[in-house]
């Protein structure tokens, strides 16, 4: 499966030390030039070097050729990085193996769904890694706790509760 990744999942996974899960979970990982500039825009953040290494190691920059779709998406009041990721996902949707768009913004996720794109976000990546036994329940809970307590990531109490219940249902054999 191919992943097309927006800035916030890259940044948050970098902050919690889980960015290396992406190349383990997906055959190819893409992002766009706009997202790369956003992610590498702050050299002083602790995760900068880790994120920079991703671009030289396993994260490939690929841009959508559909400027018209990007413009239409931006007109829907979503960030240009999210528009570029969704447009790339739509462009690649029927031309390659299965793809998934990794994006956290709720409005952008809804737009991607209406375009019939498969989506997930930062939390979905952490849970996918747990399901595939790349991390343990303890590591999963640590990532979740760190994300909520030490970053600007926002999650409702209801979603947090559902995630904890899902974690507990999984057999912990790494």
Write a compact overview of the structure shown.
This protein has about 170 residues and is an alpha/beta fold. The chain has helices at about 5-15, 20-25, 35-40, 50-55, 65-75, 80-90, 105-115, 120-130, 135-150, 155-170; strands spanning about 1-5, 30, 60, 100, 120.
Shape assignment: globular
- Count the E strands: 5
Helix content, binned percent: 55-70%
Give me the CATH fold name: Rossmann fold
Written description of the protein model:
This protein has 174 residues and is α/β, with parallel strands linked by helices. It has a single domain, classed as 5'-nuclease (Rossmann fold, 3-Layer(aba) Sandwich), CATH 3.40.50. The chain is 56% helix and 10% strand. The protein is built from 10 helices and 5 strands. The protein has helices spanning 7-15, 21-25, 33-39, 48-57, 67-74, 80-92, 106-114, 122-131, 137-150, 157-169, and strands at residues 2-5, 28-31, 59-61, 99-102, 119-120. Strands 3-2-1-4-5 form a 5-stranded parallel beta sheet. The two termini are 22 Å apart. The model has no long low-confidence stretch (mean pLDDT 91).
Name the features.
5-stranded parallel beta sheet, Rossmann fold, alpha/beta, 174 residues, 5 strands, 10 helices
Show the helix and strand layout.
Blueprint: E1 2-5, H1 7-15, H2 21-25, E2 28-31, H3 33-39, H4 48-57, E3 59-61, H5 67-74, H6 80-92, E4 99-102, H7 106-114, E5 119-120, H8 122-131, H9 137-150, H10 157-169
Parallel strand pairs: 1-2, 1-4, 2-3, 4-5
């Amino acid at each position: 499966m191919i992943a097309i990744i927006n800035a916030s999942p890259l940044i948050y996974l970098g902050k919690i030390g889980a960015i290396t899960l992406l190349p383990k979970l997906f055959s190819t990982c893409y992002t766009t030039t706009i997202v790369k500039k956003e992610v590498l825009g702050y050299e002083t953040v602790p995760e900068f070097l880790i994120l920079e290494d991703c671009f030289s190691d396993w994260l490939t920059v690929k841009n959508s050729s559909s400027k018209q779709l990007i413009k239409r998406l931006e007109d829907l009041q979503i960030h240009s990085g999210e528009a570029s990721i969704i447009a790339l996902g739509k462009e690649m949707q029927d031309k390659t193996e299965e793809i998934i768009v990794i994006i956290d913004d709720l409005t952008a996720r809804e737009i991607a769904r209406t375009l019939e794109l498969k989506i997930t976000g930062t939390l979905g990546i952490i849970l996918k890694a747990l399901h595939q036994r790349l991390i343990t329940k303890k590591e999963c809970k640590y990532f979740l706790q760190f994300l909520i307590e030490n970053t600007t990531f926002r999650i409702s109490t209801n979603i947090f509760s559902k995630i904890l219940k899902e974690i507990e249902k999984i057999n912990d054999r790494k």
